[in-house]
Amino acid sequence: MTTPLAHPSVNWLAISPELALAAAGVAIVMVRSVLRRRINTTPLCAVLGIAGIVAAGAVEYRLWHDLRHHQAITTVAGMVRVDLFGVYLGVVVLSATILALLLSVAYLQREQLDAPEYLALILLSAAGMLIMTTANDLIVVFLALEVLSIPLYVLAAFDRRRLSSQEAGLKYFILGAFSSAIFLYGVALTYGATGTTSLTGIADFLSKNTLLDQGTLLAGIAMLLVGLGFKVAAVPFHMWTPDVYQGAPTPITSFMSAATKAAAFAALLRVFGVAFPLYRTDWRPAVWALAVLSLVVGSVAAVVQTDIKRILAYSSIAHAGYILIGFQTQTSRGREAALLYLFVYAFMTIGAFAVITVAGQRGDDHHSLDDYRGLALDRPVVGGLLIFFVLAQAGMPFTGGFIAKLEIFSAAAQANQYGLLVIGVLAAVVAAFFYLRIALTMLTPGPDSPPAANLLRRVDVWSGIVLLACAALVLVVGVVPGAFVHWAKDATFLL
Amino acid sequence: MTVVLFFLFAGLTLAGALGVVLARNPVHSALFLVLTLVSVAVLFLLQDAQLVAAVQIIVYAGAIVVLFLFVIMLLGVDRPDTFEEPLRFQRPVALSIGAIVLAEVLFLAGHRWATGARTARGIGVTGGAFGSNIQRVAHVLFTTFLWPFEITAMLLVIAVVGSVVLARRSGERPEPIDESTP
Amino acid sequence: MTARDLLSLAGLIPLLPLVGAAVLLLWGRRLGSPRAGWLATGIVFASFLWSVVMFAALLSLPPAARSHVSLVWTWLPADQLRVHIGFLADPLSITWCLLVTGVGSLIHLYAIGYMRHDPNFGRFFAYFNLFAASMLLLVLADNYLLTFLGWEGVGLCSYLLISFWFERRTAALGGKKAFIYNRIGDFGFMLAMFLLVVKFGNLDYTATNHAAAHASSGTVTAIALLLFLACVGKSAQVPLFPWLTDAMEGPTPVSALIHAATMVTAGIFLICRAHPFFDASPDTMTVVAWVGAVTALGAGTIAVLQPDIKRVLAYSTISQLGFMFLALGTGAYTAAIFLVIAHAFYKGCLFLGAGSVIHGNAENQDMRTMGALRKFLPITAAAMVAAWLAIAGVPPFAGFWAKDDVLSGDFFSHHYATWAIGVAAAVMTGVYMTRLIFLTFFGNERFRDAPTPAVSGGSDDDPPDVEAELGYDPDYLPTVVYGEPPRPPRLEGHDPHESPWTMALPIALLGALSVVGGLLNLPLRGVTWLESWLDPVFHSVHQPAPSTFVKGGEVTGIAFAAGLIGIVAAYALYRHGLRNPADDPMRDRLGPAADVVGHGYYYDDGISAAVDGPVRAGADFLDEDVDQGVIDGTVNGTARLIRRVATEFGRAQDGFVRRYAVGIALGAAAILLYLIAFAGH
Amino acid sequence: MPGGFPILTAIIATPLIGAVVVALLPSRRPEILRAAGYGFSAATLALTCWLLANFSTTNVFFQFVESHSWLPGIGSRYIVGVDGISLFMVVTTALLTPIGLLASERYPAERPKAFIVFFLLLEFSLLGVFLSLDLIMFFLFWELVLVPMYFLIQGWGHGNRNYAALKFFLYTSAGSALLFASILILAFIHQAHTGVLTFDYRVLSAWSWHGLSLTTETLLFLGFMAAFAIKVPLIPFHTWLPDAHTEAPTAGSVILAGVIIKMGAYGFLRFSFELFPHASVNLAPLLLTLGVIGILYGAIVAAMQKNLKRVIAYSSIAHMGFVLVGIFSLTVLGLDGALFIMLSHPLTTGALFLVVGMLYERRHTYEISEYGGIWRSAPVLTALFLGAMFAGIGLPGFSGFIGEFLSLLGTFVSRRPWAIAGAVGVILASVYMLWSFQRAFMGKPSAVVHGLKDVSVREVVVVAPLLALSLFLGLYPGSALQRIEPTVKRSIVNLELKTDFREKRPAGYTATKLPRGVTSNESIQLGLGR
Amino acid sequence: MIGSFHITPSYYLVLGAALFSIGAVGLLVRRNVIVMFMSIELMLNAVNLTFVAFAKALNDAAGQVLVFFTLVVAAAEVAVGLGIIVAIFRRRRAATADDLRVLEG
Fold this sequence. Notes:
The structure holds five protein chains of five kinds.
Chain A: H1 12-35, H2 42-67, E1 73-75, E2 80-82, H3 84-111, H4 115-134, H5 138-156, H6 163-194, H7 199-208, H8 215-232, H9 240-247, H10 250-275, H11 280-301, H12 308-329, H13 332-359, H14 375-378, H15 380-394, H16 400-414, H17 418-443, H18 452-455, H19 461-479, H20 482-493
Antiparallel strand pairs in A: 1-2
Chain C: H1 3-7, H2 12-31, H3 35-59, E1 68-78, E2 81-89, H4 91-114, H5 121-140, H6 144-162, H7 169-200, H8 205-212, H9 217-234, H10 242-246, H11 252-261, H12 266-273, H13 275-279, H14 282-303, H15 309-329, H16 333-360, H17 378-392, H18 398-412, H19 416-441, H20 466-470, H21 501-516, H22 529-538, H23 553-574, H24 585-590, H25 593-598, H26 603-652, H27 657-678
Antiparallel strand pairs in C: 1-2
Helix pairs in contact in C: 2-3, 2-5, 3-4, 3-5, 4-5, 4-11, 4-16, 4-21, 5-6, 6-7, 6-11, 7-9, 9-12, 9-14, 11-16, 14-15, 14-19, 15-16, 15-18, 15-19, 16-17, 16-18, 16-21, 16-22, 17-19, 17-21, 18-19, 18-23, 19-23
Chain D: H1 7-24, H2 30-54, E1 63-71, E2 76-82, H3 84-103, H4 112-131, H5 135-156, H6 161-194, H7 201-211, H8 214-231, H9 240-247, H10 250-275, H11 277-303, H12 308-328, H13 332-363, H14 374-377, H15 379-392, H16 399-414, H17 416-441, H18 447-450, H19 457-475, H20 478-498, H21 520-524
Antiparallel strand pairs in D: 1-2
């Protein structure tokens, strides 16, 4: 006596961005294994990857337009929920992915790394991130977390010539596995407390039932917060960040900092916003503390760092703090701010890492400030762009960085979170120090210019596109922010 | 009967776990891990989770632990570790955090663990006309959890590609220049 | 053209020298010596002529109508305050205009000769003209603010001219000192103006002088006292007098024009201009009188022991200014103005003469190494003797009449204490002036003694042509202060020589004026010209009546006798000159008091010590300990603190992955703990 | 003039366009770059002259207002307008920029392109600060000022430039941070009460005086004050200034002293008064005290400096003390004086910095002890310094005197003890300036100083206009005051309307009134509804 | 007496929590990377135990299904993790996590 399996209905359009990326990734692996080593497969693989991303992007574009007039699409047995929020962050992820991919092409050749697997892993990781942005179930969130993380472990350790790369991979792996175990425990406890892992199901259950005993649920919420806090690099779960960002190949660092952050925040915002809004009085103070700690530690610790990638790693921790402010307010303006911030941050940080990729010497291991001495004098455009990107991250007016911070602080002010607001603005001042320090170093002539031969290398077309795109977007958002803010606002609407 | 079995295997589980943590030789740790895994599988059986118990034995004990042992042997690290702790306060801190987290979870959850609605999605572990444990699990897995199931496929692809990339002898490129060690 | 139309052009009086100054500033170097000098002199003389025209125009009006205000433009229109660039032509201002331009053109003329070798000849005359313009603006202004403009302008010129030989360290310091002391007075001036605006909403002399009568006594006293502070600064009264002696570092024509004849009398002018406030405040008048009296006696005593001819004259000027304030303090405005005029004549003459003597003695200013110069500088000697008698109060010279007006007025207004001090000061006047004349022109020749080369200064690494280039030796510090050994003569075998006619003529003319100046205001009914001329200004005031030939002869006699005693005493001491330049008989007579008096009661030394000591230490403390230490230290300390915390963060990030895991676990434990403690409530 | 030529946008945009154009020009031909720099800055100056000529002296509200949507989600708009408070700051900025560029023609010589670009960007941001009427826009420009200034100090400064540039940036942005927070809090409190989210300064100031509790108002005032006090700078928030001044290149110092530190005073006048009238009135004694401390402390510390630029830097602190005192005298006279100093101080201090910069070009040091006897070797240069010095220490006839006189007079009218203490600063000013002058310019020239070249025609052209303007304003201040005063009166009247404050007036003066035809309501709304 | 004593799901859950803690502590105190991985496996097993216990308690087969996903994730992690270790071992004969600290600060 069996009941026939009732196949869940599938809205293929809704899940095709993920599928496109996964397909592209698999295709690259296939190309690699079929063609072996007969021709240089890198351009082909890159084109395949770009095609996948573009296809995914086209679908997201279509979805965005569809969803502006319709309800969110819930499909595959309620496990996927495609709404403007998901599409928005999906676009951020896809943007970060394509930029990182473009950035990688020349890098891979310079560093003589195996391109196909590398590209495939990026695409698969990005697919995981897209899954994350539309996940409507804790177990999907968990699996997406793994899908996006495991390729990153590999990619971080990808450069076998550098011990630092492998060390980064291992550290990331150990801590990632540790935190995802904690996350999973949180899933289990939540499941026990509510009887379901579906986000909407949890919300539904909690709104209809009053728990006599909230202990299990609270413990579950705490564990979930820890797991996602790790991914967004919030203090005190941040300690992997500097080491991994420094050790990983630079394009991967840029990908991690932009895309992973977006995906992790997608999960954080969605899980806590959809499943546990009723418990916000309980978890908001914890998020408050995470935000404050991230701001303080991220901004302060970077002050004495000498490795530029490490500085940016700490700064990404601080940025996570700002986004957490938006999250913490639990208002629509706060979400809007967090979304805009993620969007702008992606371009600011990829832009900065792009310059580091381009200006770095072969071996990708010379990123101390001393190696960048005089860069802006020797190569005004490249150095100037890095200065621009770091100043944008510092919140310079008329850059996207300022608008993003403005939105975040507005949200804090509107939500009467004056403490966060003041700590936030003061942390920005401290952070300005190390951003300026980078600028200052690049404007100070070195004793001599040893890397001159290397420095005078031309920027390849792919990286050039990345640099230009990032700079243009950061500037455009800063000068005419209206549309971007509007889109972010739309994306919060259906949450 | 279940009481006895529970306490027996619960004890074995914990003993195995402690063994994993405390054994100096990684090989011993792996063997203790097997003990724990098997004990957990028995506990699964005690809770009407036959399929999961079987898979636990097959996948974990059969595949994962073997993989561990394989790597241990491959790398030749089957020597006993020193138990010196170079990090100050690491052990007391770790122990106390472990104890505190345990206490906190127990305090929070200790009164009433499962507060969720029973048979939330219609198919229970027992009861109802859903057939055997395998059928029940399969039913849930291929309907409700179809999307996660597909994702696991992707995960496995990733694991394969990743392991290949990592484990590949760098034959096509010059041997890596070893860096100075700290 | 009516008289009033003419008076509307009173602005020309300051404008002419202002234009001259501008021309000389821009093209003075090109004009060079002596053309620049002639231009400047001519302009000031033209200004004098125009002043005479103004004088005549005023005379043509009935006495009660002898006041004309001409507004040029609204200078400061703020809120409901309106301050104009406007000129008030009345007997008081025109008197000063005549004095400034008249004596001024003589001194300009003198300077053509005195400065003829100076490479910065043009600049000198630019300053000189600018000074004249400022001084004329000061006196012609129709409101306080414009007077203040002139007031500061003369201060500026004084600064520039004292420091004219700025390579000379003492000159640089002297100019600065003068300006700063003056600024202390200006502080009072500004506060007085503030108070005037607050109480009367106005800064015009006419309006405020009318309003003064109706104001509360507190207001009037405050305004008067603050104005008096300004006057004390400008006119070098106790306690703000030390700058005037250091002002002697400037070229001698400067000392004559600015620091004797004109600028220093601005204080007297201001009190006369604002007299209703002083009239209405007897307390202030008492203060003025006492300050004047104390200054007169104090400076007079100091002058007695000075070896430097210019410094004697400087202290003398302070002392004479004290007499003037004494007069003002008794309400004897006319007497004060009379003394101003007489003083301008004889002190101008004395300074110019002293300049001539110095010039003729190769820049030696030490009287102890002069003597018997009358043979070599006959014109100078004659004029100075006349001026000596005038200042000492010997009838019928100008000083006699003027000083008699002051002292007898004082006596008859029952201020016996200040009168007594004034008489004592008159004795001192006789002493130091006689000493000066006899040490310089009579007695033994001491300028040939000790034919050793100059010892002061003169470092060897200097380029040899410095003196030729600058027109003076910057290392030679001519001023001799009490206590220094006598300066060796610098003639190096030459004889002293008389000055050229451009210098001699003004000396002679001023000498002559010192003789006849008393005619301005003889104590005879009908010939008190000055008094009747000034009457429209002071008609509301009951001025104390000085003695006349009819009345109060005994008071006059006492004053005269006092002067005579001084003269005789000094004559007794110095008629043979000095036996040894290092031995001053006066010093021996005074015994231990000599050092105190000679050092100016250690007043200036005390201030210098305080400024160099505690004041500078205090400022240093503020700069180094407070500003750099505490305040900036806090700023940098904050940065350091952040750095230290950052380093600690970095240390925690020590690379051990297990440590990082502890961080995660700790975070989890903390969140759980928080939920246990606070959640669900 | 609605619908007319957008003059203010043109003024703001011209230097920006100039910066972009210069950035795009090839850097091989510096003379073309310089010509472009002169051209664009001169064009800006010409536009501001047109503005000056067409500025109505009867309109007490904002003129030439433009308003465009910018960031609708947040309610921030691009609103620009000019009134008597900002007019002369705009003119000064536009005047000092070409002069600064001209002064930098020879030195610093390296990287002229970047220098000109940053300088024009600086002008752009400063003009934006003074013309913005939207708080977010204002803050944007306020922060943006730091960036080009930072690069100017860092890139073309002297010895310790990195430290100075960083300190300048961080210290001032620490203050700005609190300003930013306060702006947001203010706007969102407004939104919470009225439902309207706007950063329009006019709307907020028409509401805040009755919409905020006294505590909130005071706290927000302090938040705004943090930024303004550091910028002014008030003691004890001043230590960035001597360092920044000393290390900045000449043109940078000119702008820094001439315009940037005025931003703080401008902020007090523009924002603190209208937005937080009660707090402004209540805290006036505190700010007066700080102002007086600034006057005295700045002067005393200036006297002890061994570096010419530091002397001038501390003197700027003292001068800004006069501005503060004038502002918080809360009288028409005092405000007139404060605004007049804000107009005059750039001229005199600018001239001083320019002359000192010329000395640096010749001798590469600012240490007073390295000089001595300059007068003899460079008489014209000395004359320029002398002129600037006396103009600066408030010699009547120059503009500095008018400002100090009015500001102290206003203070004397309302709070006598402060005015008396402040007037002591007049004495001290002469002490430190004359002492420095004596040490650096008088005395015998050393062999090195002896060879000092006197100024070139270009250098005279750089300084002379400033001194001439200072003289002109000193003798005919009415030309500026008639444009300043209507706005000042509006500010005072608004304070009286919004609080129970009553302006203290000199005897016989009638109460300050709005011009005929302007109602109290309109005044409180800053003419928004007109 | 023994009849009234039931093994409720709570026993399993407490056991799971204890196992989780032991795993966590193991990760913190062991330097051998492979043993650290084993500790993570312990933690995942604890979660599995919890899932199954909840499945029983809630009478919901979904709980058991979740164990499958955990298993797959565990397998994938182990594969990749051991791959990284092997790669590192090729370079350096370092067996402990503590030896890897090129990156710090």
